[in-house]
Amino acid sequence: MGALRTPREKWIEEGLRTLAAAGVGAVRVEALAKTLGVTKGGFYGYFTDRNALLEAMLDTWERESIDEVLDQVERTDGDARAKVLLAGRLTLSDRLLPIDLAVRDWARRDAAVAERLRRVDNRRMDLLREQIGTFCSDPDEVEARSLLAFCLSIGHHFLAAEHQGRTSAQVRARAAGIILDDRDPGADRGQAR
Fold first, then answer.
1. pTM for this structure?
2. Percent of the chain residues past pLDDT 90, beyond the cut
């Protein structure tokens, strides 16, 4: 009986873990094989080269952070606000956030990865537009709120500012409440905002 090969998914998963921890430069076949405790020969049964692995890693990241997130959001019975918050929690989970941030860094130096990231971000923005559009009728307001929601989700990971007696989580929750306010600012309700 022949030796069992390390499954393809293990190579991809270790590649994603390495990408998240140390960047794309650290994703090397020999280093992954050593971490997995195998020889690099098995790698070539699944991938023609390192670039094929990197593509498979991006495919996995895209599937998990878009297709699987959208599937879960669509199956949720909540209102638009709950769906946006769920999508944010899933997209920026402990597993996906480090990968997402590493892909963003990688995209700064690789045009093909930048195009992939653009496609993913556009799908994320489409979800935000769709959900925010259910309670906000002004297209300009929908776009602005969608951008603010996305920037809040990604940008707070890069912000080192303190919040004058409030935790970052408290301020983010308040900011999300402002962005996802269900009052349509375009409608005249006789109330000051």
1. 0.87
2. 84
